[in-house]
Amino acid sequence: MEAEPEEWIPILRKSYRFLKNLGISDLTVYGSQSLMFFLSKPLASKNIDLLRSVNINHIIEFSRYLMEMERFEVRRIVDGYVYTVYTRISLGKPIVVKVFTSTPLGTTLDLMEYIVEKEVYGEKYWTITPSLYQLLN
């Protein structure tokens, strides 16, 4: 089930702010959400993808912040982890926030030439470029 931009963008904003306040630098919008910075209209999305090195304590705090309880999964990938945090949007519809610690092409440090700072809705975010999105998909 996909969420419309007006449903998932507030969750992205809330998630991004919270994780940045935990001291996670260079947190990067990753996945199809990154395209909103380059298109005239954001797309519907079934989840929110972020990229950066985090630890389990960050994820526990983050999951409590979003749902007032710990509800997350951890999955090992080739060079890192994917943390999936569950939350809800309007009308109780579920949405997940996935935090990747690496991509098939490396970590944020390896991909710096493909990560740019963009502003949308009055806030600044780090995001991957469309060319990196295309390479990853």
| Beta-strand percent range | 25-35%
Low-confidence stretches: none
Shape: globular
How many β strands by DSSP?
7
End-to-end distance: 20 Å
Strand order of the largest sheet: 3-4-5-2-1-7-6
Kindly state the mean pLDDT as a whole number? 86
The H/E string reads: HEEHEEEEEH
Rg is 14 Å
Helix/strand/pairing category? alpha/beta
* Distinct helical segment count: 3
User: Percent range for helical residues?
Assistant: 25-40%
Sheet with the most strands? Answer: 7 strands, mixed
Q: What brief labels describe this structure?
A:
alpha/beta, globular, 137 residues, 7 strands, 7-stranded mixed β-sheet, single chain
What is the structure about, briefly put?
The chain is an alpha/beta fold and 137 residues long. Helices cover 26% and strands 31% of the residues. Strand 6 and strand 7 form a beta hairpin.
Q: Would you write up a description of this structure?
A:
With 137 residues, the protein is α/β, with parallel strands linked by helices. Helix content is 26%, strand content 31%. It contains 3 helices and 7 strands. It has a 7-stranded mixed sheet with strand order 3-4-5-2-1-7-6. A hairpin with a 2-residue loop joins β6 (115-120) and β7. The longest helix has 17 residues, at 5-21.
Helices, strands, pairings?
Blueprint: H1 5-21, E1 28-30, E2 47-51, H2 56-67, E3 72-77, E4 80-88, E5 94-100, E6 115-120, E7 123-128, H3 130-136
Parallel strand pairs: 1-7, 2-5
Antiparallel strand pairs: 1-2, 3-4, 4-5, 6-7
